[in-house]
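Incident log, support desk, overnight shift.

02:14 A customer reports that sequence design results differ from what the structure should imply. Their input is reproduced verbatim below. On-call engineer (initials T.W.) acknowledged and began investigating.
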């Protein structure tokens, strides 16, 4: 590990001061300890500042995504280029991490019903599936949450338990509506594959060539897409 020039200069000056005297050995030891302690303290401070800066950047990106009227994942294209339909990434498996987002997880002990975590996991899987519709994912999430609250009404639970359950459900659902766009877009970016424009044009040529050679006028008609959560035209 390379020592900093400032540390070397301090050691050299201190050594020259006490080199020809019988005193200062304790001072040298204290100075060395002070330098090491200062390095550790300020190193942790700078590390924390970097972490805080990254968090602010994440929050800024979250609010930027939240102000968008539509939250739709699109493959990047050249200026004026044709839109490219995202394909399911076959090498990626959708994952779930319970309730929470952006590294902040809500423990089940703070939820009125532990079963609500099932709703959160299903919501994560929906976000993490290529070409899923965010609004449909959020709607299914809301129905799942309120389903567990409705089960309280059929039991002997008190009004306070029912109200707290619905309040928690509303908080979780509202969070996905206001701040869930970035999480959705990040999940779509992981789960989708955007083919290069050149490969897509080549695939289109092969398709038309096969169409004319086979003479099948109905080839490809009403054919379901192999990839994706759903067909956007069916929504």
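02:41 Re-run completed on a clean worker. Output:
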């Amino acid at each position: 590990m390379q020592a900093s020039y400032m540390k070397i200069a301090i050691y050299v000056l201190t050594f020259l001061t006490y080199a020809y005297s019988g005193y200062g050995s304790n001072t040298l030891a204290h100075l060395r300890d002070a330098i090491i302690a200062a390095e550790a303290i300020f190193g942790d401070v700078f590390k924390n500042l970097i972490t805080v800066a990254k968090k602010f950047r994440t929050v800024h990106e979250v609010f930027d995504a939240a102000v968008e009227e539509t939250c739709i994942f699109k493959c990047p294209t050249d200026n004026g280029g044709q839109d490219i339909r995202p394909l399911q990434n076959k090498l990626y498996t959708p994952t779930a991490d319970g309730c929470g987002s952006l590294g902040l997880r809500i423990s089940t002990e703070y939820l009125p019903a532990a079963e609500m975590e099932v709703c959160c996991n299903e919501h994560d899987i929906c976000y993490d599936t290529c070409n899923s519709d965010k609004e449909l994912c959020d709607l299914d999430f809301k129905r799942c949450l309120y389903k567990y609250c409705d089960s309280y009404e059929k039991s002997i639970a008190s009004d306070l338990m029912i109200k707290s359950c619905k309040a928690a459900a509303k908080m979780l659902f509202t969070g996905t509506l206001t701040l869930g766009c970035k999480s959705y877009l990040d999940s779509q970016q992981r789960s989708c594959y955007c083919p290069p424009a050149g490969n897509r044009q080549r695939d289109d040529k092969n398709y038309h060539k096969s169409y004319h050679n086979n003479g099948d006028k109905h080839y490809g008609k009403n054919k379901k897409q192999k990839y994706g959560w759903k067909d956007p035209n069916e929504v």
